[in-house]
Amino acid sequence: MHNTALHYLHLQPDGELPPLENKPPFKAILIIDDEVSEMWRWEVCRWLVEKGCRYLMAWGRESEAWKESVEDACLEAFDYEDVPEDKLVIASSHDDEELSDVFWFSKHRAHHPAHELKPVWLLHVAAEARQEALFSEYEDA
Predict the structure, then answer these.
(1) Number of domains in the chain
(2) Range of the domain at 100
(3) Where would I find the beta strands (DSSP E) of the chain?
(4) Mean pLDDT of all residues in 118-123
(5) Which segments of 9-118 does DSSP mark as H helices, in order?
(6) What's the rounded Cα separation, in Å, for the pair 5 and 80?
(7) Looking at the domain assignment, is residue 126 inside a domain?
(8) 34 pLDDT more than 80
(9) pLDDT score recorded for residue 110
(10) In the predicted model, is pLDDT for residue 123 greater than 50?
């Protein structure tokens, strides 16, 4: 049985973003299996900041670009001024690591200075969903 704080969201590459309303600050692991447009990447990063993502771990295609985009989206949300600590988005990219290592990092090392971040979202950018396989891999990490 997976942790009740673990959630999965399948995102079709360059597709519409679903509503994520009334979510507490959360941690997200962005698993990018498929190529997307730069404009869509920016849209997703702004959406994540707006919806309460406070720690993003990017893994897969162009993970460094995703990391930089979410950091920029956070700065943009505050007109490139100082970001309050409770609104800060910490981001990391993990392009040279196994996904299981990113899951372990999420569980044991990814901490925010202002939030406990109990909800963990696996955001999967791919043509096909893999919820059960990713849940299983996360639990085993």
Answers:
(1) 1
(2) 6-18+33-140
(3) 6-11, 26-32, 53-60, 90-93, 120-125
(4) 95
(5) 38-51, 63-77, 99-108
(6) 32
(7) yes
(8) yes
(9) 95
(10) yes
The letter for the amino acid at 44 is V
Joined together, the tokens standing for residue 108 give: 């044991």
Residue 83 scores a pLDDT above 70:
yes
Q: 2 pLDDT band (50/70/90 cuts)?
A: very low
Q: Cβ contacts of residue 10 below 8 Å, gap of 6+? A: 124, 126, 129, 131
In this predicted structure, the answer to whether residue 22 has a pLDDT above a threshold of 80 is: no
Retrieve residue 138's tokens.
């996360």
Query: Which is nearest to 100 in space by CA: 31, 5, 54, 2?
Result: 31
Q: Which residues of 29-44 are buried (b: 16+ CB within 10 A; e: fewer)?
A: bbbbeeebeeeebebb
| 42 occurs within a structural domain | yes
Which residue's structure tokens are 């990063």? 45
Q: Which residues does residue 15 pair with via DSSP β-bridges, in sequence order?
A: none
